[in-house]
Amino acid sequence: MKKLLILGLCVLASTSVFADEELFITLDADGDSLISISEAAVDADVSAQFSELDANKDGYLSAEEFANY
Ligand SMILES: [Ca+2]
Ligand SMILES: [Ca+2]
User: What distance in angstroms lies between residue 53's CA and the mean position of ligand 1's atoms?
Assistant: First the structure.
């Protein structure tokens, strides 16, 4: 039973990672693997958290930074 629960959590976790990846690709309009402020403006939630997510404050969200979204 516990094993099934862990398996379920893994599936859930990988699904959400996939969803974030999908969103990242969708937002990255020019395909440079970075999300600029203007690209983030398409999504109100990402836009609102942009400065928080941009850990190195370079004005772009990398996939790594976006993973914290
Ligand atoms: Ca981009
Ligand atoms: Ca950054």
Answer: 15
Q: State yes or no: pLDDT of 5 exceeds 70.
A: no
Q: In sequence order, which ranges of 1-69 are alpha helices (DSSP H)?
A: 2-27, 37-40, 44-48, 50-53, 63-66
User: What residues pack around ion ligand 2 (CB closer than 5 A)?
Assistant: 54, 56, 58, 60
Ligand nearest to the CA of 60: 2
For residue 65, the tally of other CB atoms under 10 A from its CB is 18
Query: Which fold would CATH assign to domain 18-66?
Result: Recoverin; domain 1 (1.10.238)
The whole-angstrom separation of Cα 12 and Cα 4 is 12
pLDDT in tens, 16-59: 567 789 999 999 999 999 999 999 999 999 999 999 999 999 99
